[in-house]
Task: structure prediction
Amino acid sequence: MSTIDAEGWLPGALQRLSPNADERPPGTLIDLLVIHNISLPPGEFGGGWIEDLFLNRLDPHAHPYFAPIAGVRVSAHLLVRRDGELLQFVPCDRRAWHAGVSSFAGRERCNDYSIGIELEGTDDTPFTPAQYAQLARCTRLIRARHPAITPDRIAGHSEIAPGRKTDPGLAFDWGLYRQLMLSSESDG
Ligand SMILES: [Zn+2]
Result:
């Protein structure tokens, strides 16, 4: 069954349950999707470090960059690797800790009401076709279950935390993403 299940797990995702999540405020309507990028160490792809960070098992000694972030409690609902592989750390119904101090259309605390998707990458490295395809697929699945996430309620992290965050960055092709998202919807 190619729909999100009752707990909010996406089909085809490798499940890696992160402790960095909690309940959303009672009665919250999920009506925002936030796109991010991340790489660990920055600019290097393919290691297991992002997963380690979200599972609170990042080795602070493995790289100089890791020491100050190893104790930070963060997560995202989803991570799309460079080859399009999908990992899910938090079921969509729960609150993942991805946005930090943030505001969308005047409303603060975006974690409360959003779903966060991380793309493995950097602000200025082109994302892969496999990533766009997987992101479009995830968006279609998420919007089918959370129709309040209209196309104008899909934002970059930089948009909800301006001056503090720059991801997904200039390399992220919003036009291509929206085109793929909408065409996959019309394909059913
Ligand atoms: Zn981000």
In short: Residues 60 and 66 are 5 Å apart (CA to CA). The mean pLDDT is 96.
